[in-house]
Amino acid sequence: MLFSSLFGVSILADRPRSPDLSFTDYLDHLLSYIGLTKSIRHLVITPFWPQLQQSSISPLTRVSTWNPEPPYETVPAECRKLLDILQESDLQQSSIEAYSTAIDRLFWLYTVADVPSASHDNIRWIVAWPIQVSDEYVVLLNQRRPEALIILAYYGVALHSYRRSWAVGDAGATLIKAVSAQVGKYWSSWLSWPMQIIRSVET
User: Fold this and answer.
1) 11, 38, 107, 108: most buried by Cβ count inside 10 Å?
2) What predicted TM-score, i.e. pTM, was given to this entire model?
3) In angstroms, what CA-CA distances link 20 with 17, 23, 76, 156, 162?
4) Which helix or strand (DSSP H or E) is residue 12 part of?
């Protein structure tokens, strides 16, 4: 588990450093990272969770005794607007459920990591969200559905809060820009806040 998790982190850290990397290539790269973390959950974490909690690496499984629940009152209003995408888009029920879970887990991440106010130099929370999203959401991401990508861009804001970590660096800013290039002007209003967050640091 530890090796697999560190391998996933190394994938996250690798490609943003490549100066010739296109936004399309970076999205492909990040989706590979998400797919790997999902595999870790299915192959290692879920079937062997009781054994892991009793093993020598059990301290790594005790992330926190604090497990916030809805309504996640500290999540910024700009991020809460993500919920509107469920009503404003013509979606199938399975997609609504996948997006709802992804948004809920994103709000959880924002709460425990105090996004975007805090700045982190570790990877303590940032790897949780890709593990927690549903398989259906990953399918929608791979199909490049705009709603799925916009939610991913808000994960980019969380990544940006971890830019001091060697494993993250400018991955958050790169992700947000990649999503913006992918979805086009029609969806640009949904990305105004993520873009504002990264511009406030760049200027």
Assistant:
1) 107
2) 0.84
3) 9, 10, 34, 20, 23
4) helix 2-14
